[in-house]
Specification:
Oligomer: single chain
Largest sheet: none
Order of helices and strands: HHHHHHHHHH
Helix content: 40-55%
Shape: elongated
Distance between the termini: 143 Å
Length: about 220
């Protein structure tokens, strides 16, 4: 069988020489002949286009509605639905208004505490200044900033924070001098008189406490060990 693939006239090859194959025998022993690419294929007689066999073997494409989209099938989030359906009401923002009574009442009480310890002329002048404060406040001549600072001043005065109250008085005289110049002098004097009165009361309390301790101590008598 091997002689069929050996060229004729090469019978004298050595035992270890590779065989020399014949080109003609290789072409005869090849596979099926392929159609030349230059050869035209005849068109069908009925005029219909020729469909490859690989495509005709497959079934027709499935007919029907397209699958639903994943986004369309999902319900909208609850938060977005509520945010879109419920509209916030336009409610006005109300600030806590400082009342005249909350400022004027502690000032009048402080003035009454000073009566009897302060000269009558000084107390009367402070009273007239407080009346001007009440008149301007009720007439709407004071700004919101002045009202709020006066509320803070009264709180510091009631808490015996004299330095803090005096600092608020100075800030009002610097920032709103045209609004407070007519009555702030009386408030300043009231702070000073109230401070002096408080200092006197503290000194009297210390003196009375020391006197009480002296009476409790009897000279010449020693406690038993």
């Amino acid at each position: 069988m091997a002689e069929l693939y050996v060229k004729p006239g090469n019978k004298e090859r050595g035992w270890n020489d590779p065989p020399q194959f014949s080109y003609g025998l290789q072409t005869l022993a090849g596979g099926p002949k392929r159609t030349p690419l230059t050869k035209r294929i005849a068109a069908p007689q009925d005029g219909s286009p020729r469909v490859p066999a690989s495509q005709t073997s497959q079934g027709p494409p499935p007919m029907g509605p397209p699958p639903p989209s994943s986004q369309a099938s999902r319900p909208p989030p609850v938060g977005s639905y509520l945010a879109s359906s419920v509209k916030p009401a336009n409610l006005p923002v109300m600030e806590s208004e400082t009342l005249l009574e909350d400022v004027l009442k502690p000032l009048k009480e402080a003035l009454e505490d000073c009566r009897g310890h302060t000269k009558k002329q000084v107390c009367d002048d402070i009273s007239r200044r407080l009346a001007l404060l009440q008149e301007q406040w009720a007439g709407g001549k004071l700004s919101v900033s002045v009202k709020k600072r006066m509320a803070l001043l009264v709180q510091e005065l009631s808490s015996h924070q004299w330095d803090a109250a005096d600092n608020i008085h100075c800030s009002l005289m610097v920032d709103h001098v045209t609004e407070v110049s007519q009555w702030m002098v009386g408030v300043k004097r009231l702070i000073a008189e109230k401070r002096n009165l408080s200092s006197e009361e503290e000194a009297n309390e210390e003196k009375s406490t020391a006197t009480a301790e002296e009476f409790q101590t009897v000279p010449g008598v020693q406690e038993a060990p």
